[in-house]
Structure formats: structure tokens, C-alpha cells
Design a protein that fits this description.
CATH class: Alpha Beta
Largest sheet: 7 strands, antiparallel
CATH architecture: 2-Layer Sandwich
Number of domains: 1
Number of helices: 3
Strand order of the largest sheet: 1-7-6-5-4-3-2
Shape: globular
CATH topology: Alpha-D-Glucose-1,6-Bisphosphate, Chain A, domain 4
Oligomer: single chain
Helix content: 25-40%
Structural class: alpha+beta
């Protein structure tokens, strides 16, 4: 699988960042502007090992993700178990949290993807990377302001938010 790493420093404690990323796993749409909705599957209510969420990018494109590995308050891995994204074969991501101050945390996201047609990695890498950058910025904005960011307000929020 092809691997890319993304980082974002957020002005929030490691505990608060973990709470939003892991314990509110099924509500990723609140801070990910590339998703219109998300919800828990299989009666899950909080983030936990093997917890599954369903994420909608629009009325057609979706993916289901499962927490497959957890090192509490440090890192967790999410694997895509079902999707209808074109040309994508497998996807996974590991989130790692590093406290760099009392109320400052670095979020590291390592994304791994493979494609059904090999050369698609060159065509899709930029688009997927932009989506992940938006996700981490949305997380930062949500943690620091308590406000949501979505596809409609993302450009304006990104342009005007003092980082």
C-alpha cells in the first residue's frame, strides 16, 4: 500500500483531542468537511476496538471504517472494511497523538491506500491528500472553536481562521 503522512498541531489537550477523534469516532462529519454525514453501525455508541462507522461523502459515495488497533491515548488504527470509492482497493489510517504542551497536541495521520489499477495512485494521491488535509484542519478548527466546518463553509473558514 502507498503511505502518506499528514500532521496538524491543535491548541487542545491530548485528552480533549482523543475524546473527539476516538470517543466520538462515529461523528467524524462534525469536523471533517469532506463528509456530509457519519454514524455508528452495529449499535456502537462510543469509540472502542472493532467499533464501526458509516461515512457519506455525498449521496452516492460512502465508506465503512472499523477501529482495528488501539493504544489508548496514544494511537489508533482505522481500516476501511466496505466502500464504493472508484479505483480504491484498500485503505487504512493510523492517528497518533503527541502532547507538545499542556494544551497543545500534534496529530499525526498516516494514511495507507492501494488501488485496483496501479497507476491510479498517481492520479488520486493529490485529491486524497487534499481531503485528508481538510479533515485535519477541520479537526483543529472544531477543537479550538467548538464550531463545525463543512463543505459549504470550509473555504471561508480556512481563509479567515487565525492559526
Amino acid at each position: 500500500m502507498n503511505t502518506s503522512e499528514f500532521k496538524e498541531v491543535v491548541n487542545a489537550s491530548k485528552e480533549r483531542t482523543w475524546e473527539v477523534l476516538f470517543n466520538q469516532f462515529g461523528d467524524i462529519h462534525v469536523h471533517n468537511p469532506t463528509m456530509v454525514s457519519s454514524n455508528y453501525l452495529n449499535n456502537a455508541s462510543i469509540g472502542e476496538l472493532n467499533c464501526v462507522r458509516h461515512c457519506m461523502f455525498n449521496e452516492k459515495l460512502f465508506l465503512d471504517e472499523k477501529i482495528s488497533e488501539v493504544n489508548k491515548m496514544e494511537r489508533f488504527t482505522v481500516e476501511v472494511i466496505n466502500h464504493n470509492l472508484p479505483f480504491v482497493k484498500e485503505m487504512a489510517a493510523t492517528y497518533e497523538l503527541v502532547a507538545i504542551g499542556k494544551d497543545m497536541t500534534e496529530v499525526r495521520m498516516t494514511s495507507s491506500t492501494s488501488f485496483s489499477i496501479g497507476f491510479m495512485k498517481y492520479l488520486m494521491r493529490g485529491q486524497m491528500g487534499k481531503s485528508l488535509v481538510k479533515h485535519l484542519f477541520g479537526l483543529k478548527y472544531y477543537l479550538e472553536t467548538g464550531k463545525t466546518v463543512n463543505a459549504k463553509n470550509y473555504s471561508e473558514v480556512y481563509k479567515n481562521y487565525n492559526r
